[in-house]
């Protein structure tokens, strides 16, 4: 029997129902059902055995993506399949070779020497134009393609840019031998490969981590979609995003959100069960999220998890309450009038900059107040404090040229005192949020912020001109921060490495020991 006949017989035995002879079908076909010939010759149609999703063209890369990322039913039927598919896809990605490289190796194997099709003159030409026309190895081209993909994604650029003639000319000037991937390859093949690589790195971090903090947050985007993000933070403060879901079509009940969270945790890692490593769950504090946390930790496998409220969200709520108070809203309305005029007037904007330089003030313009970011309120107030002297000079020298609505604001006697009073509370709130966003805060830091805010509220209440405002801030702060006055924060405060107190009173010592024993019992380390 000839070699061709042996190959023909082997192909029929391995895949007798395959309409196309040649190499064996991919392993992935075990999880799909062939449903016949596609419209285009040489292609087949198929559907998933788990969720019955149909593919009019059975392309291997799309089938891999479906099993690895899209199929929900596979988690209940056979969760190990997804792990195996992702492992195989990573292996295929690492072993990928170009047709030119395969041809070169085949010629080398047949002739005993590497193929050489380039003349000596061409070789010398490549050496002359080494930096602009050198041949790019496959591995290097893959790295360039990945860097190009990351640049497009992180800069918010459309994949259509890859087909733009001017963009291609730019790349051609850098190296005429580099052919960029087209839009379809970027959005499908490369994006899937990059997603798998990122998931692989995330799995490595999750496997190395011993303690995880689970965070869950929901918000509404500009398009009106209800989005939920799930992430964990390791003990080394590395953040791993587990999932981002659009749940606009569902009722956000506590039971539904708990089921969604369990689903995310189930498919979050392909090598280990991260639920055993979760030490705390942190969310904001609407009634539905509070009930969801209680439902989650009431389960048998989750009883070791601590339930914590997001400290940053509470600070945001306090800041929003402060800004909405009549004292704050009236003052900010006045400052917006001045800020808008000086930022839009070319003449007075230039005069303010010149006066600030003359008096050696670091700030030269007023900061505007953003509607969606309350931290800009603190920036705006600080800019008025820094530019007070230049502004008073402009009022004396160029006051007649200013419009009446601006003059009325700048001539108020209590203007800067009101600015100082509002800034003293907004500065602390903005500083607290900055610490939390910097990913360097601990529960002890939160406890210190609580103490400082409480003392500041008492100071505002004691002043005659801000007594009413201080009472409002104190009431809002007590309501928002009540849940943070618990034993966990107290324990972290006493155990902080920089704690320099005189010691613990008998009552506090008893609280600390009892809380530590309770945590140890939950973590099963006693």
From TrEMBL:
Which BP terms does GO give this entry? regulation of transcription by RNA polymerase II
- Its domain of life reads Eukaryota
Q: What residue spans carry the region label Disordered?
A: 1-23, 94-124
Domain DUF659: residue ranges: 185-337
A Pfam family reported for this protein in Swiss-Prot or TrEMBL: DUF659
User: A GO CC term?
Assistant: nucleus
Which regions are flagged for Low complexity bias?
113-123
What PANTHER family does this protein map onto? DNA REPLICATION-RELATED ELEMENT FACTOR, ISOFORM A (PTHR46169)
> What's the protein name?
DUF659 domain-containing protein
């Amino acid at each position: 029997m000839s070699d061709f006949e042996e190959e023909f017989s082997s192909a029929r035995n391995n895949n007798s129902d395959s309409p196309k002879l040649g190499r064996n079908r991919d392993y992935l076909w075990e999880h799909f059902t062939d449903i016949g010939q596609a419209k285009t010759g040489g292609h087949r149609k198929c559907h998933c055995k788990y969720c019955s999703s149909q593919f009019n063209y059975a392309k291997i890369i799309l089938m891999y993506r479906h099993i690895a990322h899209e199929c929900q039913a596979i988690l209940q039927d056979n969760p190990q399949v997804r792990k195996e598919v992702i492992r195989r896809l990573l292996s295929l990605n690492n072993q990928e070779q170009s047709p030119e490289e395969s041809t070169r190796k085949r010629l080398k194997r047949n002739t005993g020497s590497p193929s050489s099709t380039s003349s000596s003159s061409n070789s010398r030409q490549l050496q002359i134009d080494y930096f602009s026309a050198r041949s790019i190895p496959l591995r290097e081209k893959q790295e360039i393609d990945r860097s190009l993909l990351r640049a497009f994604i992180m800069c918010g650029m459309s994949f259509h840019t890859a087909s733009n003639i001017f963009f291609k000319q730019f790349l051609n000037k850098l190296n005429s031998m580099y052919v960029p991937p087209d839009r379809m390859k970027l959005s499908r093949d490369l994006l899937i490969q990059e997603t798998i690589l990122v998931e692989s790195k995330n799995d490595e971090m999750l496997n190395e981590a011993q303690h995880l903090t689970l965070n869950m947050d929901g918000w509404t985007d500009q398009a009106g979609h209800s989005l939920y993000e799930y992430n964990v933070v390791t003990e080394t403060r590395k953040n791993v995003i587990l999932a981002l879901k659009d749940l606009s079509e569902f009722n956000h009940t506590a039971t539904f959100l708990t089921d969604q969270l369990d689903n995310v945790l189930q498919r979050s890692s392909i090598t280990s069960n991260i639920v055993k490593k979760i030490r705390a769950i942190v969310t904001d504090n609407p009634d539905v999220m509070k009930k969801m946390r209680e439902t989650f930790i009431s389960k048998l496998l989750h009883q070791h998890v601590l339930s914590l409220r997001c400290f940053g969200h509470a600070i945001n709520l306090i800041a929003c309450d402060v800004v909405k108070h009549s004292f704050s809203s009236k003052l900010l309305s006045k400052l917006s009038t001045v800020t808008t005029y000086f930022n839009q007037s070319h003449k007075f904007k230039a005069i303010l900059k010149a006066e600030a330089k003359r008096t050696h003030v670091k700030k030269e313009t007023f900061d505007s107040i953003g509607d969606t970011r309350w931290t800009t309120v603190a920036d705006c107030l600080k800019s008025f404090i820094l530019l007070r002297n230049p502004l008073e000079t402009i009022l004396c020298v160029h006051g007649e040229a200013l419009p009446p609505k601006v003059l009325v604001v700048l001539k108020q006697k209590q203007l800067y005192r009101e600015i100082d009073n509002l800034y003293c509370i907004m500065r602390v709130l903005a500083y607290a949020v900055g610490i939390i966003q910097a990913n360097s805060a601990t529960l002890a830091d939160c406890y210190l912020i609580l103490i400082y805010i409480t003392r500041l509220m008492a100071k505002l209440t004691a002043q005659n001109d801000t007594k009413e405002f201080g009472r409002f801030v104190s009431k809002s702060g007590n309501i928002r921060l009540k849940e943070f006055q618990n034993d966990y924060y107290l324990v972290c405060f006493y155990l902080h490495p920089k704690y320099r107190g005189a010691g613990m009173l008998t009552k506090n010592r008893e609280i600390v020991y009892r809380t530590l024993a309770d945590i140890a019992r939950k973590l099963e380390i006693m």
